[in-house]
């Protein structure tokens, strides 16, 4: 059951798939609900991460459940795919063309051999690597999103392709009842779509009042101190713990990279493209503390084989024309990524107001600043250019410094 054959497609098939994908992308992008962020232009997974983190900090009582599917791409039912595409309004002939591409005979490499040895006729599943596959999987989840949203429960649904997160509000029996209703609908969806929930990798984290004990299970789902969603930890975690998975992965890559027979300049290019991006999403959602920065810089030193950090910094920062690498430290990269996320929110003030107006008001009240209701429309609409500071923007800047957004790394000019 763990066999993962490698599918081979010729150039003609890929050209056909790409052509179809480009034709239907604009239409399907308008149909697919905003809860689904997977592989769609203008939608980023970091939006879900920042939203989930902000909701966890904002609400006193809630639970988050990370859902894992068993071999999601390999299990999608062609019958449900056809019904969904027709339900969304695509023409019958167009749907037949899509299904003919996905169900056409295909060569597979099985085992360790890279020579095509097996011809299979797929009966279900979408091929990973096919340009159409991510879009078709997003289409399949449309029915699930509409079905769960039709329930009269306090639950927020976040999806990035097959990665699902339930944010269940409330507490006690109501929370358990709402989650059971959502899981029941998810089970019905799995019956028709072929997607099966992997119970052994599905966990929940529950936020309770101070002094209360967290339950061991919630609606049959095992409760843990935190859950992993899109590579980041959510729940009762500190910044250091949130960065731990990314740092461990980067350190493993750094040690492998240090053993390669490469020059310092070659290693710096490899580090920037292979190691540093691992922490990008985590850095956008979690502020890198001083301890995290020291660990990130240790990863950087290990990868380049430079043990003396006092000498490493000048070498990194100097331009190549002066004998340096022209590369900022990994800690500075993480701080820039976090500040860039904050600046992005300011450029889209409606989203900033939605998620941070509550903490901002509490901070403003503590500073003795009177924030009347009429200020919020200005914050939401953002009529004042960022290049011309105002009282409200000054408050936002002070608020960002207080919460240590940005970490002292200025954003690039286009994001100021």
UniProtKB/TrEMBL annotation:
Entries under PROSITE patterns matching the protein: RT_POL
Name of one Pfam family that matches: RVT_1
Reverse transcriptase domain ranges (all copies): 1-234
Domain of life, per lineage: Eukaryota
Record's protein name: Reverse transcriptase domain-containing protein
Native source species: Eutreptiella gymnastica
């Amino acid at each position: 059951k763990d066999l993962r054959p490698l599918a081979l497609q010729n150039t003609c098939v890929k050209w056909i798939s790409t052509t179809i994908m480009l034709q239907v992308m604009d239409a399907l992008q308008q149909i697919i609900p905003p809860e689904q962020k997977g592989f769609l232009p203008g939608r980023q997974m970091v939006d879900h991460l920042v939203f989930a983190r902000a909701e966890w900090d904002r609400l006193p009582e809630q639970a988050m459940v990370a859902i894992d599917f068993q071999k999601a791409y390999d299990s999608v039912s062609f019958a449900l795919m056809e019904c969904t595409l027709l339900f969304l309004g695509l023409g019958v002939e167009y749907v037949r063309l899509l299904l003919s591409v996905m169900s056409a005979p295909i060569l597979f490499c099985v085992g360790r051999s890279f020579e095509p040895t097996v011809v299979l006729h797929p009966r279900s599943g979408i091929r990973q690597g096919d340009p159409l596959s991510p879009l078709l999987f997003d289409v399949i989840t449309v029915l699930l999103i509409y079905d769960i949203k039709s329930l009269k429960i306090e639950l927020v649904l976040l999806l990035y392709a097959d990665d699902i997160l339930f944010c269940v509000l409330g507490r006690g029996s109501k929370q358990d009842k709402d989650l059971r209703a959502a899981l029941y609908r998810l089970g019905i969806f799995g019956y028709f779509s072929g997607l099966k929930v992997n119970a052994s990798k599905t966990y929940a984290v529950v936020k309770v009042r101070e002094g209360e004990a967290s339950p061991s299970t919630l609606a049959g789902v095992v409760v843990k101190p935190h859950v992993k969603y899109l590579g980041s930890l959510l729940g009762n975690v500190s910044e250091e713990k949130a960065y731990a998975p990314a740092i461990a992965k980067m350190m493993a890559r750094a040690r492998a990279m240090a053993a390669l027979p490469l020059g310092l300049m070659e290693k710096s290019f490899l580090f920037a493209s292979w190691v540093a991006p691992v922490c990008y999403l985590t850095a956008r959602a979690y502020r890198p503390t001083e301890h995290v920065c020291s660990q990130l810089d240790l990863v950087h030193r290990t990868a380049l084989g430079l043990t003396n950090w006092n000498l490493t910094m000048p070498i990194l920062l100097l331009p190549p024309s002066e004998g340096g690498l022209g590369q900022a430290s990994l800690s500075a990269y993480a701080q820039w990524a976090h500040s860039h996320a904050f600046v992005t929110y300011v450029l889209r003030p409606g989203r900033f107001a939605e998620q941070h107006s509550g903490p901002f008001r509490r901070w403003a009240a503590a500073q003795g600043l009177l924030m009347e209701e009429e200020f919020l429309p200005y914050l939401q609409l953002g009529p004042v250019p960022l290049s011309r500071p105002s009282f409200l923007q000054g408050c936002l800047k002070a608020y960002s410094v207080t919460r240590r957004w940005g970490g002292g790394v200025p954003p690039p000019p286009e994001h100021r």
